[in-house]
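Quick one, T. Sequence first:
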Amino acid sequence: MKNVYDVIKKPLFTEKGSALKEAVNKLLVEVAVDANKIEIKKAVEELFKVKVEKVATIKTHGKVKRYGKFTGMTSDRKKALITLKEGEKLDFIEGA
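Structure tokens:
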């Protein structure tokens, strides 16, 4: 297994993500592009000390961007929508 910090990059704080967290106890994080659902589940359980019920992944391909006369690509991204088990709770920045 990879290091948990290599699998999970950062939590995503969006309006949709916070609504999912409050309504149905789901968590939205950005993960490594080559990480699979089993690695993501183990990394979240080890890092945040919670029980995970289900993991859904969303892969977003990079876009072509222009910088003057030059063209480039943005990076590919992968997001994970993690469903926590009943009774589990995870608060990132509740006190801030």
